[in-house]
Amino acid sequence: MRAVRRKFHKPNIITGCRYPMTESISITSAWTEDLNAATRASIIQLCIAAHQEEDFKYLFSYVPSGGLHFLAYRDEQLVCHAMVTARWLQPKGQPILKTAYVDAVATLPAYQGHGYGSALLRQLAREVDDDYAIACLETERPSFYERLGWEVWRGPLAGRSESGLIPTPHQTGVMILRLAQTPALDLDQELTIECQAGRIW
Fold it and tell me: What are the start-end ranges of the H helices in 7-129?
């Protein structure tokens, strides 16, 4: 797997949004390896609060390096987070595509519905556009992402393992975002992804 080309990202100040935000926010990105202990703790606390899921305390055990974290701050408070890792989608009839796989999307409950998550995901899409051929995520809230240009994959889904394909017929909520390098796609065809330890999608 090729290493992701590293960039230095300056914070972006977001003041215009289709949802009401009483304050401007700053959005920045950092690699897992560059996050200090306090920022890691804030990310974990945010994800647990947003999803009510204690497993997020193991986030940095699952992704000890190589993740690109997008962080939205209101004043000095971290209010929104998303993480990108490199994965490898293959739509049927297409080559394997370097994929910006988005995980751990979370907004503090007090700030949900005010546009912070939308602003962060728009910035994420802009920053991954040069380095990846497509973006992908799995969600139980497709309507939120559809507003931002994401599309539900309608065709069959499977994981690619050394022993062959592993169908995932019960998997739902897999979405893709077309980037500048995305080839023509048929969303009703089969889509596969490389299997990882303990997970497919």
Answer: 37-51, 59-62, 116-128
Asked if 174 and 153 count as a contact pair (C-beta separation under 8 A), the reply is yes
DSSP 97-151: EEEEEEEEEEE-GGGTTTTHHHHHHHHHHHHHTTT-SEEEEE-S-HHHHHTTT-E
Q: Tell me the Ramachandran region of residue 117: left when phi exceeds 0, alpha when psi lies from -120 to 50, beta otherwise.
A: alpha
Indicate whether 42 pLDDT > 90: yes
- pTM of the predicted model as reported, rounded to 2 decimal places: 0.88
Angle at 104 between CA 50 and CA 186, to 5 degrees: 125
Instruction: Please report the domains of the chain, with CATH numbers, ordered by start residue.
Output: 12-194 (3.40.630.30)
